[in-house]
Structures are given as C-alpha cells and as structure tokens.
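Exercise 7. Predict the joint structure of the components listed below.
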Amino acid sequence: MVKRTRFDDSECPVARSMDAIGDWWSLLIVRDAFDGNRRFGEFQRSLGVAKNILAARLRTLVAGGVFDVVPASDGSAYQEYVLTPKGRDLFPVIVALRQWGEVHFFAAGEPHSELVDRLSERSLAPLRVHAADGRAVDPDDTVVVKINRAP
Amino acid sequence: MVKRTRFDDSECPVARSMDAIGDWWSLLIVRDAFDGNRRFGEFQRSLGVAKNILAARLRTLVAGGVFDVVPASDGSAYQEYVLTPKGRDLFPVIVALRQWGEVHFFAAGEPHSELVDRLSERSLAPLRVHAADGRAVDPDDTVVVKINRAP
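Solution:
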C-alpha cells in the first residue's frame, strides 16, 4: 500500500486544498453536489462506487468543512449532504477542470455534458486568470513567492 | 487494493480531465512545473516522493499529453519534463485550488507561498466564473445539460 504524503503543514495553499479534499475523485462528489445531489444514494448511483469508499470520502469532506450533514429536506429519516459556503467556493475549481476537459478531451461534435448559464442557456465564459489590476496573465507572467503579511 | 473507477468514456468533461491527470497529487507535479521545475530530481526533491511513484505519475502525465519529454536545455544527458500547451491550460485549475486554499486554510498573517503578478508583485485577482455575456454567475445560476452540438 502506497503511503500518501500529507501536505497539511505545507506553506503551499495548493497542497493544503488538495489535502482537505483528500482524494482525487472526491471532487466528483463535489461536482454532483453542484448538480443538485444531496443524498448518499444519489451520490452512489451517480458515481457507481462502493458504499464504504463513498462513506469514507464523505467523512473526509465533512471533516474538511466542505459538506454539512443535515436532516432531509422532506422530513424523512434520511441525512443530506449540503455544500458549506467553503464547499461552494470550490465552484471555480470544478469549472476549471470542466473547461479543460471540454477543450482537450472531446472531438468536435462529440456529445458531452455542459455547464450553462440558466438565463441565456449558453456555455459559460472560459475562466481567465487576471492580475489585481485586471490584466489577463498567463503562467509566465506570474511567480510564486513566500509571503509573510501582517494580519 | 481499491480499484479506481475509470471515467474515461464518460460524457462528463470533469471526469475526463481527472482521468487524464490520473492521480490527485499529480497536480502538484504540474504546480511545480509552473514554478519552473523541469527535471526528475527537482520534482523529487520538491515532492519528497519515492522515485518509482514519481516515475509512474510522470508517465501518466506524458501519456495524457500534459508533459513532453525533451533533451536537457543545457546539453547534458538529462531529460526534462516540459508542460505542453494542453498542460499549460491547467493554469486556471492550479490557480483555483491555490486561491481556495489561501482563503480557507490559512489564519490571518500565517505565512504561505503566494502566486503574484511579476509586473505589479501583487496577488492575482480572485478567479470568477462568468456567463458568456460577462455577468458573474454563482453555482445556482448554472445548470448541467447534455449537449450534442453539430461540429
């Protein structure tokens, strides 16, 4: 069994984010939650994954503050998994992965799911990285530095 | 050993993206490449991971078209791993994970690495999701549909 390196005490926000999510395909649970899934059985049907694995991934996501567990909205005995505000802040991550996939992994005309704006029913604009002053930047325009800002 | 579900034939671009990257922490290799790392030994020192694991992850990333393997830029016998244009298109994914981490996993004033614009030396603007007409949208403004567009 390969031991995964933990990055929890890293000074890199990318690594801490990845550690909190815990597992690659846990992001698909988050994607399903954005699509309206709330119940264990809904996630299980969507992802086709063993119950014990899904339960473990959900526990990590709840512990990481990505989901809250709440009583079912219909008054039944079910529990529901609802994205916290922190979980909802993963929206750009999911959109970025989706857009990368749309561009690079589908042939022209090949059917795929698409995330559209409800109002216009059109695809979203491609995500672009901008400097604080609004200039679009690409990777070469940026550099990683160690910051120790006053609070 | 848990068998990972493969999503390669899925109609979901998020799933195809994740399948191409192959493993959660392979994104840290991509992050390191954006930071200027090119050689196996550089990635290994940065990530502190076993050589066989790193080699396997790099193979998946090369097979997935994220990295090219090229002769060393200094004429030595080393190989270097260089992001392809497709790999460079992962920039918004890395930035989105970084910004999520910066907001949610560091106390005020806690030191962390930061991705800044070279020109202004200031933090990048937060990534925002926009509709095609430029309106900012949040998750509730969007819906996933199955699209089968003419090429």
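Discussion. Strands of chain B lie at 67-71, 79-83, 112-117, 142-147.
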